[in-house]
Design brief:
Number of strands: 2
Number of helices: 27
Order of helices and strands: HHHHHHHHHHHHHEHHEHHHHHHHHHHHH
Helix content: over 70%
Number of domains: 2
Distance between the termini: 86 Å
Strand content: under 5%
Shape: elongated
Radius of gyration: 27 Å
Length: 569
């Protein structure tokens, strides 16, 4: 094993990791936004598109937009728009640069902690090239993943420096990096637990009779406090945004069974990363008891084996508990979103399994002849396989069509992806295909007001106004406060010439949300079409009072005022 002090080999490893990751991920510079959360984060988000400003900074810290609270992520996307405009290519490259930085930091941190150069390099290379990480890197909406992990690793590096030579300044720096990471994504809530594990191995702080587990826990109390605070804020925001599913929708026993199986699924996908999808739906037939019991048995057996080796092979304990612990926030006991599990959730947790496999391989072969050649050849084959699979997986992230078609090809009963795919087809002008796909989605989930609304839009684009109106009305029966469905219903009614009914839909929305500038504009246009110019002017003025920078309202107001002042024109 090469020692950490050998500086000559470190720089080539460093450069190889950076260049290899860049080359593999470089195709994303030509990728588009995808119609799945990228609209929430960028393409339909005027605050982000406006770039950095004091107003934008304030918004980033107070908003619950997207049912998440991650102000640092919002600010990073605003900075992208400030520097590059609303262009997907540069945003993708920024994600890649964060991923490269994370890869290099992972190498630095483990090399510094373990003094095991080649093991650290291989862990970093697996992190860089594993196909399960494509989703976190190639998806602009997952900026929060790569950004928060940067601060996760900076926290670890600062912590190692603090352990090497303790001081108040170094301790505060660890806390600052940790807090910044929480501001990027609450996934860091488990990091204090990981720091405790690092004290056990490889930092080996408990071998010092003056430093006990109790000392270690007390030292981490400010970190645990920030984790609890972040968890509470996140839960409130996600519940308010409707992202947290109640027990009526996903019962606890189903969530528990899914969590147990998900732990095993991620292990399977680490070793055999094929048939990956942007969304894995819950099985409509439920999870078989046999699968749950088999997954639980395997997990328990691994845990027993790991604990049995807690003295001789400490890396097994750290790797396994890292994996189990860091998945807790996203394992689905508290169900957030519609997915059963997700590739992006492995971005940090998979490192625990990498630790176990890499160090165990070196241990098992330590007395085998030609050990170095066997390990080098095995590592090369594994990394080549990862590179090929990652390259292929990146192709599917080029645009919405490819992404959703792939997800539908490798999963079953994926209603939510059908919904997204139908919307993507509609945006491409393929309205007949969109209507067919969305009709299938309606059959799969008839009580979804969102899917009913989208199906109505597809029918409206085909000129089937009566059918579209029927879908909007069904959507509003399911969810009476679905303003977007009421807006679409108003547009469809107006297209049929039923302006009074269209105006009534506007007034229903404005009675509940009088600060909806877009709806005031729509109402003004309807009134203007009826020749009610004074009322239309009043609606445009109200829109401008709500948003003084609303250029569309200003243009409509100026045009109508000019027309009234010069009726001959």
């Amino acid at each position: 094993m090469m020692a950490f002090s050998n500086k000559k080999i470190q720089l080539p490893i460093f450069l190889t990791l950076a260049l290899l990751t860049l080359v593999v991920y470089l195709p994303v510079r030509n990728h588009d936004f995808v119609r799945y959360d990228d609209d929430v984060y960028v393409t339909n988000n005027p605050e982000v598109q406006s770039g950095l400003s004091w107003q934008g900074i304030k918004w980033a810290f107070v908003t619950d937009h997207g049912a998440n609270w991650h102000p640092l992520t919002w600010l990073s996307l605003m900075l992208d728009c400030e520097l590059f405009g609303v262009e997907p290519g540069p945003m993708h490259i920024v994600n890649v640069l964060f991923h490269i930085a994370n890869t290099l930091l992972l190498f630095i941190v483990f090399n510094r902690m373990t003094k095991a150069l080649w093991q650290s390099a291989f862990i970093a290379a697996l992190f860089a090239l594993h196909p399960l990480h494509v989703e976190s890197v190639a998806w602009i909406a997952e900026r929060k993943d790569v950004l928060s992990t940067l601060f996760w690793l900076l926290t670890m590096l600062a912590y190692v420096r603090y352990v090497e030579r303790s001081s108040a300044g170094r301790y505060i720096l660890v806390l600052v990096f940790f807090a910044l990471g929480l501001l990027a994504k609450p996934m860091l809530v488990t990091l204090p637990f990981v720091l405790l594990l690092l004290d056990y191995w490889p930092l080996d702080r408990f071998s010092n009779s003056k430093f006990s587990i109790r000392n270690s826990i007390i030292e981490k109390l400010p970190f645990f406090f920030l984790s609890i605070l972040s968890s509470v804020i996140t839960f409130i925001v996600q519940q308010k945004g409707g992202a947290v599913f109640s027990a009526d929708i996903v019962p606890f026993n189903v969530r528990l069974a899914n969590a147990i199986c998900s732990y095993f699924v991620y292990i399977e996908k680490m070793f055999w990363p094929v048939r990956l999808a942007v969304l894995y739906p819950y099985s409509i037939n439920g999870i078989s008891l046999v699968r749950v019991l088999l997954s639980a048995t395997i997990l328990v057996l691994i845990t027993v084996l790991v604990l049995y080796n807690y003295r001789r092979r400490k890396y097994l304990v750290v790797g396994w508990l890292w994996y189990l612990g860091t998945l807790v926030p996203v394992i689905g006991i508290v169900q957030v979103g519609v997915q059963a599990f997700a590739d992006r959730y492995t971005y940090v947790p998979l490192t625990g399994l990498f630790i176990m496999c890499v160090f165990a391989s070196a241990d098992l072969l330590k007395n085998v002849p030609f050990k170095k050649y066997i390990l080098a050849a095995s590592a090369t084959i594994i990394l080549l396989a990862c590179t090929v699979l990652t390259t292929v997986q990146l192709i599917y992230w080029k645009d919405s069509g490819l992404l959703f078609e792939r997800a539908l090809a490798v999963t079953e009963n994926n209603v939510h992806i059908l919904n997204n795919y139908g919307n993507a087809l509609g945006a491409m002008g393929r309205h007949k295909e969109a209507a067919k796909v969305l009709e299938q989605a309606v059959r799969g989930l008839p009580d979804s007001y969102e899917i009913r609304n989208n199906y109505g839009k597809a029918l409206q684009n085909l000129g089937k106004l009566d059918d579209a109106i029927e879908q909007y009305q069904i959507a509003l029966k399911i969810e009476p406060i679905a303003d977007f469905a009421r807006y679409n219903l108003s547009v469809a009614l107006a297209a049929k010439g039923n302006f009074e009914a269209a105006i009534e839909q506007c007034r229903i929305v404005l009675a509940a949300r009088p600060d909806d500038a877009e709806m005031h504009i729509h109402l003004g246009i309807l009134l203007q079409n009826q020749g009610k110019f004074d009322q239309a002017i009043e609606s445009y003025k109200k829109a401008l009072q709500i948003d003084p920078n609303f250029q569309k309202a200003r243009d409509l107001l100026n045009a109508l005022t000019k027309k009234q002042n010069n009726p001959q024109n």
